[in-house]
Amino acid sequence: ESRETRLRVVLRVRPLTCTETRRGDRRVVHSLGDGAVHVSAARHDATFGFSAVFDAGASQEAVFEGSGMKQLVELAIDGFPCTVFAFGQTGSGKTYTLMGPLTQSETQPATPSLLGLMQRSFAYLLEQSRSRGSDLALSASYLEIYKEQVRDLLSSGPPCALPLRWSKSRGFYVENQLSVDFESLEAIVSLLLQGSQRRRTSAHALNRHSSRSHALLTIHIRSRAVSTSSSGEGPSACPSKQGTLCFVDLAGSERVKETGSSGELSTEANSINRSLLALGHCISLLAKPRGKWTHIPYRDSKLTRLLARSLGGSGITLMVACISPSSHCLSETLSTLHYASRARSVTTRP
Question: Which residues are annotated as a binding site for ATP?
Answer without folding.
Answer: 88-95
